[in-house]
């Protein structure tokens, strides 16, 4: 919590310490705050009074008024103000957009999802994102003045200023259409981050990497991209390019940065054309559809369909090569396959686990499927916005209110 101002402009570190404690305390008393922060009772009471005056904390009715008092002097009880504001998490994928409005603690207030045409220009895409954010705020009964922090996840490397480098084909400029500038001023804190980084945040805070200090969250549906945590630190790089999938263009047996969905399509088509899979079989007939149903294919593999198992096995070999590269580069304890595809990926993971030890000299990482589904980037965005609200926005709000009252 080093980003929290030590004294919120009051000259007393105890104020920041009590505010930090309040985020996870729920309802608490001065005695509770004193015990947790190792400050004296008089100092705790003074800090609580300061935060109440700034409308950051709310004093609750005492035990007598609440009907719980029995004997003795009732303790004063406090909690974070319910009117601090809200945060926004945005998942701006290549072909989808999800906007979530949430309170700073744990409650989701509104969610909106829509598809985005990948042919939209950066300006059109930017306008759609802003409009959906406005609508989500209206759905939640809030306005932009209520926003404490925004975090947007994009399918592009992002530097510390929220800016993506140029892409040879303009892909990054489209998927991150200047969001840091477009959202500037919407909230005290605006962060734009790579979607894989936010997947790693989600997995580390409430998914398969809770308690793990070395892991990779691998978004693997349409394109490969990894959010990398080493020694408990989330890695970014000078341009936000750690875990970028272009490396797989150079790995034998991996068809570039395209993820497991496109790879499955390619491998099924090749198997039908070679005669390994009968074109008239249930699996073979899938190549005649406009878009192969990846989930159906993997469900058939899980049910034991031999043709689907053949494709899953080959897909597992591809995944093992990808994970082998990540394992050699970052030495993770776990690699977690994330995104919507994770819900049915187990047959592929089973095949990959048998091959993985041959792909690297280090001990193979544990290969797991995420339980967070298609919402993993949204969950990471909201978690990041909440942390920004806690560590930066609310302390700044408190400091501003206290200064105005001085």
Short characterization:
The chain is an alpha/beta fold. Helix content is 41%, strand content 17%. Strands 6-5-4-7-8 form a five-stranded mixed sheet, sandwiched between helices. The protein has a five-stranded mixed sheet with strand order 11-10-9-12-13, sandwiched between helices.
Describe the structure.
The protein has 406 residues and is α/β, with parallel strands linked by helices. Helix content is 41%, strand content 17%. Strand 5 and strand 6 form a beta hairpin. The longest helix has 30 residues, at 376-405.
Please tag this protein with its features.
disordered N terminus, 406 residues, five-stranded mixed sheet, alpha/beta
Helix/strand class: alpha/beta
| Cα distance spanning the termini | 26 Å
Separate helix tally: 13
N-to-C SSE string, H for helix and E for strand: HEHHEHEEEEHEHHEHEEEHHHEHEH
Taking all Cα atoms into account, the compactness measure Rg is 25 Å
